[in-house]
Write a structure and sequence with these properties.
The chain is mainly α. The protein has one domain. The protein has ten helices and two strands. The chain has helices at about 10-35, 40-45, 55-60, 75-105, 110-150, 160-180, 180-190, 195-200, 205-220, 225-245; strands at about 70, 160. A two-stranded parallel sheet has the order 1-2. Helix 4 (about 75-105) runs antiparallel to helix 5 (about 110-150) and helix 4 (about 75-105) runs parallel beside helix 6. The chain is flat and about 65 Å long.
């Protein structure tokens, strides 16, 4: 990509930012419009699939599980349709959003910073979708199965509303999509010489405590089972960060 070497004024940067925001919004709105008209596929085959006994994880594990949802509010179904549509459009727009961020910050970076950030941004897109896949395929179904089968008394049956299901679904997806960006951040900081493998190993115990606290924040109930399900992949992410981190910080290339 050819980059102008002429210095840019504050207003030039502001104009570039305006263009980037406009392009991202245009892509987002276009995707949202398309997603809006695929309501049946979006909900029946994707969003509500973990509540059905036909979900692939249940079939693979031989688990007989299904969940009946009820709607308790007059406008809830329409609002949920809009919310899920916007969320799916946002998820699909992430690679383009990252590209626009990269294009905007590129002129302000040194050569070594460009190499570090370029690789990290590409890695970040992949990790974001891996986080969504892990949450959708494993974490959310386990959480849903646990809550559906847990009762304080046989006299109190579980009846779940559509709103609570969607709320839990969205929070779990976004939380894991964002948290899975951690190795990409560490990879960039390692290339920039900010962190090293020895430093991450030194603070491994501290990181484990932070992960426990973060797991408690992410999980809606804070029960030990759900915290364990959330904590394990987060800790594995930290170990992955140690593996991809350099042994010693690289020397910064002078301007």
């Amino acid at each position: 990509m050819a980059v102008s070497t002429e210095p840019q004024t504050f207003w030039d940067h502001l104009e570039e930012l305006r263009k980037s925001i406009f392009h991202v919004l245009a892509v987002f709105v276009s995707l949202a419009v398309v997603m809006f008209f695929f309501k049946n596929f979006l909900f029946d085959k994707v969003v509500l699939a973990p509540a059905s006994s036909d979900f692939f994880l249940y079939r693979m594990l031989g688990v007989d599980f299904s969940l009946s949802l009820v709607n308790l509010e007059v406008s809830a179904q329409f609002l949920i349709h809009m919310k899920v549509t916007f969320l799916c459009a946002l998820v699909l727009a992430v690679p383009y959003l990252i590209y626009e961020i990269w294009k905007f910050v590129l002129p302000a970076l040194y050569e070594n910073e460009k190499r570090a950030v370029r690789g990290a941004l590409g890695f970040a897109s992949v990790l974001f979708y891996i986080g969504l896949a892990v949450a959708y395929s494993v974490i959310f179904p386990f959480m849903l199965n646990f809550f559906a089968s847990y009762q304080v008394s046989p006299d109190v049956p579980n009846n779940f509303s559509l709103s609570s299901y969607i709320s839990m679904f969205i929070s779990t997806m976004l939380a894991f999509g964002i948290v899975f960006e951690f190795p990409a951040v560490i990879a960039a900081l390692s290339r920039l010489g900010v962190v090293s493998r020895s430093l991450l190993k030194q603070y491994r115990k501290h990181a484990f405590v932070v992960i426990l606290v973060l797991s408690a924040v992410i999980t809606p109930s804070g029960d030990p089972f759900t915290m364990m399900v959330v904590c394990l992949p987060l800790y594995l992410l930290y170990e992955l960060s140690i593996l991809i981190c350099k042994d010693k910080p690289v020397e910064m290339i002078e301007e």
